[in-house]
Amino acid sequence: MDTVAWNKSELTVGELSNRSGVAVSALHFYERQGLITSRRTSGNQRRYKRATLRRVALIRIAQRVGIPLAEINRALSCLPDGRTPNQQDWEELSREWQADLDERIRRLQQLRDDFTDCIGCGCLSLRRCALTNMHDELGEHGPGPRRLIEDADPACCG
Amino acid sequence: MDTVAWNKSELTVGELSNRSGVAVSALHFYERQGLITSRRTSGNQRRYKRATLRRVALIRIAQRVGIPLAEINRALSCLPDGRTPNQQDWEELSREWQADLDERIRRLQQLRDDFTDCIGCGCLSLRRCALTNMHDELGEHGPGPRRLIEDADPACCG
DNA sequence: ACTTGACCTCAACTTTGCTTCAGGTTTTAG
DNA sequence: CTAAAACCTGAAGCAAAGTTGAGGTCAAGT
Questions:
Q1: Which residues in window 97-156 of A are less than 7 A from strand D by Cβ?
Q2: How many CB atoms are located within 10 Å of the residue B45 CB?
Q3: For A53 and D29, how far is CA from C1' in angstroms?
Q4: What is the pTM of this model?
Q5: Are residues A148 and A71 in the same domain?
Q6: pLDDT digit string (tens) for B77-116?
Q7: Does B99 touch chain A (CB under 8 A)?
Q8: What is the extent of the structural domain holding A72?
Q9: Same domain, yes or no, for A93 and A137?
Q10: Final residue of a domain: which of B97, B126, B150?
Q11: If we measure between CA atoms, which residue out of B125, B5, B37 comes closest to residue A57?
């Protein structure tokens, strides 16, 4: 399967699906949403440019990190799709995404750090936990820790 | 509004909503899904522990970065909710999340970098773009760049 | 030529994560 | 004590992001 495909300049929907790992139905869906485009053969079948493979890859990467299709679409709509890209639009778009991505990265890192900080407590205080500095000093059982937690926040770990 | 609330050890659903910024209906939903819990008053109204506020915060943070509720639920289900947390479970869970979060952060950073790399090209080659090293040497117009791109990948930016 | 696997469209269904609505109960402020 | 504001449940609706299915066409190998 896919024997001659590597030489061809265009991909069928099945080839695009196999190579991108995205279901054919999803590719159709993306096309309906205007995220990707295709030309049609005389027999009305889709043919995609190779570049579409990258476009799909970008879409999936963006999606996996929680960016909704609509926003991805907005971003990609500034891109060439066969034409020379508009330099200004591209750079502006890129700046926008940078900011968004930076913010997302920041939040993820915070979530990770918060999670780390709270190991040994479990009260989810997100960085303000009264226990965060006591891991070494207190055992996990007995009334000691519990009383300290309650002193710090009556509802915490109660 | 909320005048006495700061002293109370429990929150009504409205207070939890105001303080967390999450709609009452969403809180009900989370409760149905088992993400948060409440006790009921004699009149059948919900009362939440203060710790629930943190739990909700964590849920929203996790959601914003693309983690589905089901997974958040799985993660949170190991947590105390009034009991002393099981240390082993907690640590194991935390390790799992760490890995997941690290992976997410990695992907996001890659997406950001790819995006940066491709400024000036627009062909979305994701790091393999033939133009990435030419920004300074070539103008944006004329046949020069286009030819180079086509040499590198016939379908790219075509 | 013909069959079989890939494609086509369109409509309906699914899942996730909620919101809205209707109809009724509880709390709280004056 | 009463009226408004907040709360309750259950059902229905919605948007996003697809999937599934029916019924039909296209194209590739033998």
A1: none
A2: 12
A3: 28
A4: 0.69
A5: no
A6: 766 665 444 556 566 666 777 777 888 888 777 777 766 6
A7: no
A8: 1-97
A9: no
A10: B97
A11: B125
